[in-house]
């Protein structure tokens, strides 16, 4: 995926622990920085989550942002009444987007949105191989909740701040 900002060539690629500078990434949230540095590679190896990083191809080791994806299930009763119509009443196949973050030095430049769009594209592509009804996210705080809500995610559990975005027909 290529961005449009002049002189930068934004690309999202799978995290490669040998190549990308994980320790140099700072999104201002310790848990997310630590995840990228210490757990993301292990989770990839074990099939728990796959992480993708945003880089500028001119500085290919510097991580500007990242997100991770995992297979997930969404409880049927978490869906809104309207969304339940026509669906089987058992856990609904989904993909969890986790740990979406951009570096503090590149905030407010549309990179968070670019990462989310990239994830959606990737998940739509996965749909040609396996069923995925929705993307789910667990927002870590009110700000994250409002970020996801801005893109049409629907809050389905206030306690865990779980949200989902139906992918629609297709
Ligand atoms: C949330 C986050 C990824 C947004 O990244 P970003 O690069 O600043 O986002 P963008 O520049 O693409 O902004 C996209 C839109 O989201 C809005 N937005 C950005 N951060 C937001 C926040 N914390 N709360 C609510 N809305 C937010 C922007 O205002 C923008 O909307 P606009 O175009 O109408 O102004 C970033 O703040 C971050 O990494 N936070 C720490 C980690 C985190 O909380 N992740 C959330 C999931 S766990």
Helix content: 25-40%
Total beta strands: 7
Major sheet attributes: 7 strands, mixed
The general outline is globular
Q: Could you tell me the mean pLDDT?
A: 95
Count of domain modules:
1
> Helix- and strand-based class?
alpha+beta
Q: What is the class in the CATH system? A: Alpha Beta
**Spatial ordering of strands, largest sheet:** 1-2-3-4-5-7-6
CATH architecture label name: 3-Layer(aba) Sandwich
Determine the CATH superfamily. Gcn5-related N-acetyltransferase (GNAT)
Beta strand %:
25-35%
Structure, explained:
This protein has a single domain (about 10-165), classed as 3-Layer(aba) Sandwich (Aminopeptidase). It contains four helices and seven strands, in the order βαββαβαβαββ. It has helices at about 30-45, 80-85, 110-125, 140-150, and strands spanning about 10-15, 50-55, 65-75, 90-100, 135-140, 155, 160-165. The chain is globular, with a radius of gyration of 16 Å. The structure holds coenzyme A (COA). Coenzyme A binds next to strand 4, helix 3 and helix 4.
Q: Characteristics of this structure?
A:
7 strands; alpha+beta; Aminopeptidase; binds coenzyme A; 170 residues; seven-stranded mixed β-sheet
């Amino acid at each position: 995926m290529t961005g449009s900002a002049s002189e930068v060539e934004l690309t999202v690629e799978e995290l490669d622990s040998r190549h990308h500078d994980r320790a140099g990434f700072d999104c201002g949230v310790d848990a997310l920085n630590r995840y990228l540095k210490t757990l993301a590679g292990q989770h990839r190896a074990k099939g728990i989550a796959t992480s993708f990083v945003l880089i500028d191809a001119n500085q290919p080791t510097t991580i500007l942002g990242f997100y991770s994806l995992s297979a997930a299930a969404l409880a049927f009763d978490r869906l809104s009444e309207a969304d339940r119509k026509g669906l089987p009443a058992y856990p609904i196949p989904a993909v969890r987007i986790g740990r979406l973050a951009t570096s503090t030095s590149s905030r407010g430049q549309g990179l968070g949105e670019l990462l989310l769009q990239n994830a959606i594209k990737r998940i739509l592509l996965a749909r040609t191989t396996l069923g995925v009804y929705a993307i789910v996210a667990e927002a870590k705080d009110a700000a994250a909740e409002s970020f996801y809500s801005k893109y049409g995610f629907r809050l389905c559990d206030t306690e865990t701040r779980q949200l989902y975005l139906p992918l629609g027909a297709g």
